[in-house]
Amino acid sequence: MNNEIRTHHPDGQGELMAHAVDACVHCGFCLPACPTYALLGEEMDSPRGRIVLMKEVLEGALPLFEATPYLDRCLGCVGCVTACPSGVPYGELITSFRGWSEPQRQRPLLQKVTRAAVLTLLPRPGLFRAGASVGRFAKPLSPLLPQALRAPLDLLPRTLEPAQPLPALTPAEGVRRGRVALLSGCAQQVLTPNFNSATVRVLSRNGRDVVVPPTQGCCGAAAMHTGARPLALQQARRNLNVFEETQVDAVVSNAAGCGAGLKEYPMLLAGEGEADENRARALAAQVQDISEYLGKLLEQGELEPFLPTSRPLKVAYHDACHLAHAQGIRSAPRALLRAIPGVTVLEVPQGDLCCGSAGTYNLEQPDLAGQLGDLKARNVMATGAEYVVSGNVGCHTQLQSHLTRLGSPIRVLHTVELLDMAYRGQL
Amino acid sequence: MSTRAGSKAPSAPPVFSLAAELTRLLGPRKVLSNLSERLNYRYDAIAFGETPLCVVLPDSTADVVIAVKAARAAGMPIVGRGAASGLSGGAAPTEPGLVISFTRMTQLSIDPVLREAIAQAGVITLSVTEAAKPFGLIYPPDPASFRTSTIGGNLAENAGGPLCFKYGVTGDYVQGLEFVDADGEVHSLTRDAYDLAGLLIGSEGTLGLITQATLRLTTPPQFTRTLMAHFAEVGQCAEAVSAAIAAGAVPSKLEFMDRACTNAIEDYLHLGLPREAEALLLVDTDGNDLETVEEERALVEAACRNAGGTVRRAESDAEAAQLWQARRSVSPALGRIRPQRMNEDIVVPRSVLPEVVREIRALGDASGLHLVQFGHIGDGNLHPNILFDPRTESLEAVHELAHEVARVAIRHGGVLSGEHGIGSMKLAFMREAVDAGTLAALWRVKHALDPHGALNPGKVLPAEEA
Ligand SMILES: Cc1cc2nc3c(=O)[nH]c(=O)nc-3n(C[C@H](O)[C@H](O)[C@H](O)COP(=O)(O)OP(=O)(O)OC[C@H]3O[C@@H](n4cnc5c(N)ncnc54)[C@H](O)[C@@H]3O)c2cc1C
Ligand code: SF4
Ligand code: SF4
């Protein structure tokens, strides 16, 4: 698409955005992949429409405030990237655009407060735990609150699992075959502590020393995707320092959003000088999702075999957007699940469509998030599975809350939790 | 503020009064008037046009009637719009006016006994077949855009697709349609008496707004076999096609792409397609008798080998599905090569295909521009595309080359639009392709059905000579 973005924004971020707009041939192939287009049926709420809107704003032809309602409704699920034959890096475009536009925006007070609260609480598991505990007691008040406050309360589990602190080093079981670092994630340490414990057990069982650097911090994805670029940069630099020192074969993530976030450091640091750009690329090259890492072991015939299930088990696999679309990881988790003797893997209808969790979307667009969550839960129920697994804490809470609301007995687990159970003969 | 729209000129500027009037009549959910909204209804998949003054998203035929009458009263032109996947600028307005976007008119029902689908204009093409499948039926027209495009847009362009070689184009499946005329009157048509439905099909929104269609469904073939062949030269591929058909094969799909297309697709899907080959041919044979289907595939295979090609059979349904996904992605994947393109949609007699693809290839090579070719080669329907970067390449040279390519088609007894329509993109070639007497006759038809010239002005027919 013809554009004048470079003239108006002659910097690294401007170049990223101009390149993305250049590459879009406005063919509309992405329309059916977009959850908001599916719900609203309007061009402004489609990927192609949003690209045009961003172009117009960046060229100064459209005031920012006119475009923001539609850009804010974008989930950042990047389903459109998978669907786009022309290779438009839509994720980079919207992220850079949000980074550029956020400082110019005036937000209502309540929104400012919730955004600040999320970005402050998330990276601090201690505080987040405290907040979540208070929130649990506030749950009965939920119907009385404005929707922006109600949504996060509705998502909180009724009981919080006790914390499961992770040792800085868990040695390999048996012969040592490698050494990896684990990105421990933020919210999941509080909401779903077993994700990390299960990951460590599975890696150790496969002969890996697992390092969990205690000084690591939030990956910065939440800040990056909500346009808080300075905070995201600060968080990224901290992690670059920490992980550069760990001396590992791979940095493993079990949170699709965080893994994708680390893999996006080169985009975040574009324009920050060559040295930083190179460091970002080096770390990004080391990052692997847990299913990607284990999937390679499986492929090479090096994965420790799983114990068979005690009875035939139907497992639905839910593609987290930040695994399937952002990282292109689809076959590895399915192959791992199939490697458990006794497991049948089921596909979720409309599987490419986002579940509506998408980072802070539940807080900012509760209505659309709710519709998408409901649709996803119904599609999962239609599979007739006993378990549904996915690779992301956001999807996990979203599925959990909507399945519970619909009265479904389906258990929601992280992929690696199921693998862990298979190793321990618990299936 | 709004007064009842009528022939008396309202005092507010027309844009405000039309939007206000429509909002009053239809409610705010169906009317878009902010700049950010209107900007998004000015393009299709090839061209950007004028920003409309107002956009209506109707739910029903009744809404369309209201919108058309209000626009008429305000003296505004009306452009119908489906998914805007069109490749000839059809849905991109040439003057500011009203855009009626059908994307929310998505009611669809299947009558398995009559083997019919009744679809509102905004129904997505692919969903017709998906809805018909549980009844053991399919809807064959399959433009590469079928996940996106609408039935209304398909009828308006008389869209084709790979399956059309054997099964026919959209128009062959239309049993009847409902349309709203330029004055806002609703008409229901079948295919008898004067085939007015046939006239509406392919009229690109210039004669009426299609609100609903009754589509014929058929039973799917029991067996399908897929093969891919690649060639060291584009002409060989065309020779293989002619030879296969001459030998009696009636493949259901016969699709061709050249080397640049194959490489753009490889960059997107990583399927392991032969990047070095100058031409790739994808073929399906199908039917209810496996032996015949296999025989037909063998005929095509032999023709490809004789022409110097290398043949690979798809071993599984999954592999075949991947190859067809690759074919459908060709057009947008070309965006990887250059940001802009000029695309053509010529149809030539099959007997001259080898010469035509060779001549076009030679024109491209001589021009120094990026010219690529692909298309439904079984029907002689080719899409030569010129890919360019307007910042570094001359638009004049691009237009000149496009014109040369069109002339090749006309010289060999071909036509300019197989399936994408004339729209605004190919208007300039119309005078060369259609003689003056015929053009005058077409204009008389246009005047009869759209006496005020309000429906999608500036499309299909070049301006009348004074
Ligand atoms: C990647 C790609 C591949 C394609 N492949 C093919 C292919 O294989 N075969 C093929 O034939 N086409 C193909 N096309 C072109 C395009 O998809 C078709 O022309 C399609 O029929 C357009 O449908 P639409 O809903 O997008 O219509 P639009 O683009 O919105 O409109 C097309 C024309 O129809 C008019 N129109 C739309 N709706 C109505 C209505 N309800 N009543 C009256 N007029 C209306 C518009 O005014 C316009 O003139 C392709 C396009 C793309 C981008
Ligand atoms: S599929 Fe890609 S090129 Fe086509 S409109 Fe969407 S983003 Fe643009
Ligand atoms: S990221 Fe998701 S919500 Fe946003 S435009 Fe792309 S498909 Fe739509």
What does this structure look like?
The complex is a heterodimer of chains A (427) and B (466). Chain A is an alpha/beta fold. Chain A is 52% helix and 9% strand. Chain A has helices spanning 5-8, 12-23, 35-40, 47-58, 64-72, 79-83, 90-101, 109-121, 125-138, 147-155, 187-191, 194-205, 221-225, 229-244, 256-263, 265-268, 274-286, 290-299, 321-324, 331-338, 361-364, 366-382, 393-405, 415-423; strands at 169-170, 178-183, 208-211, 250-253, 287-289, 313-317, 343-347, 387-390, 411-414. Chain A has a five-stranded mixed β-sheet. In chain A, strands 7-6-8-9 form a four-stranded parallel β-sheet, with helices on both faces. In chain A, helix 4 (47-58) packs antiparallel against helix 5, helix 12 packs across helix 24 and helix 18 (290-299) packs across helix 20. The longest helix of chain A has 17 residues, at 366-382. Chain A is globular and about 65 Å long. In chain A, 53% of the residues are buried. Chain B is of the alpha+beta class. Chain B has 16 helices and 19 strands. Chain B has helices at residues 14-26, 35-39, 61-74, 125-132, 151-157, 164-167, 196-200, 234-246, 259-269, 290-306, 317-328, 330-333, 353-367, 395-411, 427-433, 436-449, and strands spanning 31-32, 54-56, 78-81, 98-101, 108-111, 116-120, 174-180, 186-190, 209-216, 223-231, 253-258, 279-287, 310-313, 340-343, 346-347, 370-372, 374-376, 381-382, 385-388. In chain B, the strands form four sheets. Chain B has a seven-stranded antiparallel β-sheet. In chain B, helix 8 (234-246) packs antiparallel against helix 13 and helix 13 (353-367) packs antiparallel against helix 14 (395-411). The longest helix of chain B is centred in the middle third of the chain and has 17 residues, at 290-306. Chain B starts with 13 loop residues before the first helix and ends in a 17-residue tail after the last helix. In chain B, 55% of the residues are buried. The A-B interface holds A 1-2, 22-29, 31-32, 41-44, 49, 52-53, 56, 62, 66-67, 69-70, 84-88 and B 32, 34-37, 39-41, 43-46, 57, 83-85, 101, 103-104, 106, 122, 124, 145, 147-148, 264-265, 267-268, 329-336, 339-341, 390. The site of flavin-adenine dinucleotide has 37 residues of chain B, from strand 3, helix 5, strand 9 and helix 12.
